[in-house]
Amino acid sequence: MDAVVQHPFARVPIPAPKPSSPRKPSREEAEAAVRTLIAWAGDDPTREGLVDTPKRVVKAYEELYAGYRVDAADSLERVFEEVQGYDDMVVLRDIPYFSHCEHHMVPFVGKAHVAYYPSNGVVGLSKIARVVDAFAKRLQTQEALTAQITEAIDENLKPRGVAVMVEGEHMCMSMRGIQKQGVSTVTSQFTGVFRDDPAEQVRFITLVRGGLASPR
Ligand SMILES: Nc1nc2c(ncn2[C@@H]2O[C@H](COP(=O)(O)OP(=O)(O)OP(=O)(O)O)[C@@H](O)[C@H]2O)c(=O)[nH]1
Ligand SMILES: [Zn+2]
Q1: Which residue positions does the secretion signal occupy (predicted)?
Q2: Which of 58, 123, 175, 183 has its C-alpha lying 20 to 30 A from 99's C-alpha?
């Protein structure tokens, strides 16, 4: 069955999409598809400069779409319970990501900002960035990316709250179609104390913007 599509700001858990292809094509089939697209673009896939391109594209796809082979929950397994009394917000701002829009398969790129209030300990900081990558390296919408990062941290860490803000520029809007460059799309999702208390949202946004948030 196809992944369930829900409203991006739904308050219910949103399952990460599972690859629903019934059979993974072989590498040879994938390379042949690239040759077809080169010919469709108007070039000759047998000319010298392009002859190895299908191999390179398929190899690049393994990197660009590595998120399908990653379970974000694995990154969040190791919790450091001894946090020496720290119980305030942990914020990682400006986590760069590269993703591809599911409508045109062209990149959208930007930064994710992630915060949580620890309740049962903290995770290694790099693991939050790994969660961002696990979902970014798939075919995505920015709204779903935002919701999936939020849900993975909420489900696995069970913190007092999670806040995620994603900023992105979509190449499908800047290099084709409407051709508006420099448009930044901002999406955000909150759970727990962030959802319930607007002052916590303000504090998060202030910290993301590089300001000094007033103490709670
Ligand atoms: N909500 C949302 N829309 C996106 C995202 N990425 C791309 N889009 C939009 O997806 C829409 C697809 O619209 P369609 O009308 O089906 O496709 P299209 O004819 O190529 O649309 P244009 O881009 O307007 O030329 C476009 O409006 C894109 O801007 C995203 O992450 N979130
Ligand atoms: Zn697009």
Answers
A1: none
A2: 123
